[in-house]
Amino acid sequence: MINRRSLLLRAMALGAAAPLGGCNYEDPAHPDLADKFLHAMSAWNDRVQAALFDPHTLAPTFRADQITSPPRFNAFYGIDQVPVVDETTYKLELGGQIQNKAPWSLQQLRALPQESQITRFVCVEGWRVIGQWSGVKLSDFLRHVGADTTCKYVSFKCADGYYSSIDMASALQPQTILALDFLGQPLTAPFGAPVRLRIPTKLGFKNPKSIMYLAATNVYPGGYWEDQGYNWFSGS
Asked: Is the distance from CB of 210 to CB of 83 less than 8 angstroms?
């Protein structure tokens, strides 16, 4: 059965699409009319999704025998272009409204309490896989470094040039982790080594890999795909 939240989101998506039939994409007097409308609707959709989001509601979890095999690689480049980060010298840099901005080594991250989950990864392209990830709760890490959790956003920059951001409520959701392991082993380069975000309440492109920088901020940080028109909140 479709729950109330899914029904509302589907209805809003249909309602947003209906007026586009009347837009004249070739009208030189209004060349950006459709584009402006879509951006406005996307921003409105972000606000509605944020209002409907319940940080206490958990994403579905699965059994070990339901894990997808083999795992699926995804990125905005081919697997032969995956950057390899030297884990022995790796440092997670911190910025924004965080009290203790000292960088973190992989060893320090592994010394913190670890959480494991078997959750579903949902791609905006329509495919989905189930995997097992382990790492540090992002909420615990943010509090550990004195991040201002009243900020609106947590932003990320990655070794491959990718960047993304999430809302603070989603960052504090208990299943959101800084993943260090995948399928019971340390992350490999194609799957985001040495540290990636695993957030099962959002679509796959909101799970940045090979994170090099993390910040808490009230300034909208955007994202690699979001700045090209993808919906920013992108709950799954």
From this structure: yes
Structural domain count, the chain: 2
Regarding whether 21 and 118 lie in a shared domain, the answer is no
Two tokens, residue 22: 């009347």
Q: Which two tokens stand for residue 166?
A: 């999430």
Taking Cα atoms as reference points, which of 156, 136, 123, 151 lies closest to residue 223?
156
Prediction pTM value: 0.81
| Bridge partners for 155 per DSSP | 165, 215
Distance, in Å, from the CA atom of 68 to the CA atom of 122, rounded to the nearest integer, reads 12
Full domain range(s) for residue 170: 64-228
Q: Residue 31: left if φ>0, alpha if ψ -120 to 50, beta else—which one?
A: alpha
Residue ranges of the chain with pLDDT lower than 50? 1-26, 34, 37-39, 41-42, 44
In a domain, 77, yes or no: yes
Query: Of 191, 195, 219, nearest to 75 (Cα)?
Result: 191
Is residue 98 within 8 A of residue 146, CB to CB? The reply is: yes
d(CA 74, CA 153): 25
Count the neighbouring beta carbons within 10 Å of the beta carbon of residue 82.
19
